[in-house]
């Protein structure tokens, strides 16, 4: 997972939970991988929730205690408007041209249902941080499509049977 993070995760020290997703956040844990080459995205649900600190760095909110991280970064009394502005959902992405792997807050063409708590829009530009190509896809957009790494297999979604 850390390979996909733009910023290091923080230690969670705050005590007060913040039920930011209305308690409906129980995604299944799936594997996303090529059925031929073994190329794989991180196991999970296609991405992760983040909260931005004062420097604009995105801090990974560890599931299922996302609220603790939000409170830790934004403060106990953060107003809902601030929370709305400073939280989001990073999708695991890959550049189809240089194969660089990264995380970005994009609106998936094939919507990831587990990010429905956030406004549906591209917060980040759909652009590879390494080669600047716009030819970028999220995990969910690649399910059932040709593997971007080997060009032969297909990216498949494999349930692990676990619920987070
Ligand atoms: Zn492959
Ligand atoms: Zn690239």
Layout of helices and strands, plus pairs?
Elements (H helix, E strand, L loop, with lengths): L27 E7 L5 E5 L2 E6 L5 E3 L5 H9 L5 H7 E9 L5 E4 L31 E3 H4 L12 E9 L1
The chain binds zinc ion (2 copies).
Task: Kindly describe this structure.
By secondary structure, the protein is of the alpha+beta class. It has a domain at 2-15 and 45-144. The protein has 3 helices and 8 strands. The protein has helices at 66-74, 80-86, 139-142; strands spanning 28-34, 40-44, 47-52, 58-60, 87-95, 101-104, 136-138, 155-163. The strands form 2 sheets. Strands 3, 4, 5, 6 and 7 form a 5-stranded antiparallel sheet that branches. A hairpin with a 5-residue loop joins strand 5 (87-95) and strand 6 (101-104). It is globular and about 50 Å long. The two termini are 15 Å apart. 33% of the residues are buried. The structure holds zinc ion (2 copies). The site of one zinc ion has 8 residues, from loops.
